[in-house]
């Protein structure tokens, strides 16, 4: 068992029967009252975001999580299928547990978080930035670059990303998987 002094960013805790990841935390101290610890929490097994406040020294219930490297194989009616890079075991994971399923491409390396108590997958995290091929994009107009104008482009996974006018079909671009935004062109 842990106390509020053990809270850290990224820690996964059990609260009211659900699992939450600590996004941000802090402490409020006043001269007259006991210190309070607050945290912004994002649901791991649900899509809720909450804020929680504890008295300093209260018990919290962290969940042991194991991160393993997996490779994305394919998608079928059971879900998205991944293979463990060490044991070659395959696991099917539901779309709700994947950070950005629209950016998954065959053979891509991902991190799968497992709850060690139940040995069940909790979430799939893609790398922060990935390189994708632009498969379709309207040609940009020459000289129309006075402002940061963006146009839609379809990438190899089928997702649509807003890119600058100078990005053309057949080029490689780097995309931020957390926000879905264009980062840069890749040579």
How is this structure best described in words?
The chain has 187 residues and is mostly beta strands. It has 3 domains: 2-60, SH3 type barrels; 65-125, Nucleic acid-binding proteins (OB fold (Dihydrolipoamide Acetyltransferase, E2P), Beta Barrel), CATH 2.40.50.140; 129-186, OB fold (Dihydrolipoamide Acetyltransferase, E2P) (Beta Barrel), CATH 2.40.50.140. It contains no helices and 16 strands. The chain has strands spanning 2-3, 12-15, 18-28, 36-43, 49-55, 59-60, 65-76, 79-84, 90-93, 109-115, 120-125, 129-137, 150-155, 160-164, 172-176, 181-186. A 5-stranded antiparallel sheet has the order 9-8-7-10-11, with no helix packed on it. The termini are far apart.
The total count of helices amounts to 0
| Helix content estimate | under 10%
> How much strand?
over 45%
State the CATH topology of the largest domain: OB fold (Dihydrolipoamide Acetyltransferase, E2P)
Structural class comes to mainly beta
What is the radius of gyration?
A: 21 Å
The CATH top-level class label of the largest domain: Mainly Beta
What is the helix/strand order? EEEEEEEEEEEEEEEE
Briefly characterize the structure:
It contains no helices and 16 strands. By secondary structure, the chain is mostly beta strands. The strands form 4 sheets. The protein has a 5-stranded antiparallel β-sheet, with no helix packed on it. It has a 5-stranded antiparallel β-sheet with strand order 14-13-12-15-16, with no helix packed on it.
């Amino acid at each position: 068992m842990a106390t509020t002094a053990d809270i850290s960013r990224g820690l996964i805790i059990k609260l009211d029967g659900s699992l939450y990841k600590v996004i941000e935390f802090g402490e409020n101290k006043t001269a007259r009252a006991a210190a309070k610890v607050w945290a912004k929490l994002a649901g791991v097994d649900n899509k809720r975001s909450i804020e929680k406040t504890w008295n300093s020294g209260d018990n919290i219930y962290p969940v042991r999580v194991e991160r393993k490297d997996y490779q994305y194989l394919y998608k079928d009616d059971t879900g998205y299928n991944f293979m463990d890079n060490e044991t070659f075991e395959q696991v099917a994971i539901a779309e709700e547990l994947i950070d950005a399923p629209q950016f998954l491409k065959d053979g891509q390396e991902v991190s799968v978080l497992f709850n060690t108590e139940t040995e069940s997958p909790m979430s799939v995290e893609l790398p922060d930035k990935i390189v994708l091929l632009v498969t379709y994009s309207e040609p940009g107009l020459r000289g129309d670059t006075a402002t940061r104008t963006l146009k839609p482009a379809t990438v190899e996974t089928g997702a649509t990303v807003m890119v600058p006018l100078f990005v053309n079909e057949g080029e490689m671009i780097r995309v931020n998987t957390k926000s879905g935004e264009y980062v840069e062109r890749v040579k």
